[in-house]
Amino acid sequence: MEHDGTNLTVTEAVRSVQLLKIDGYCATAAMEALEFIKSRWNIDGHEWEIRFYPDHWHFLEDEEMLFPFDDKFDHSEWVALKLILVSEPQRDKLRVNLSCRLVCPSQHLDPSQAKTVSHVFNRHSKCSPEVLLMLKHKLPSSGYIVNDSLTVECTITVLGDLDTADEPVPPPSDLRQHLGELLESQDGADVIFHVSGESFAAHKVILAARSLVFKAKFFGGMEETSSEHVVIEDMEAAVFKSMLHFIYTDMAPELDGELEPQAAAIMAQHLLAAADRYGLNRLKLICECKLSGGIDIGTAATTLALAEQHHCSLLKAKCLEFVTKSPETLDAVLATDGYAHLVASCPLVLTELLRAACERKI
Question: For the whole prediction, is pTM greater than 0.85?
Answer without folding.
Answer: no
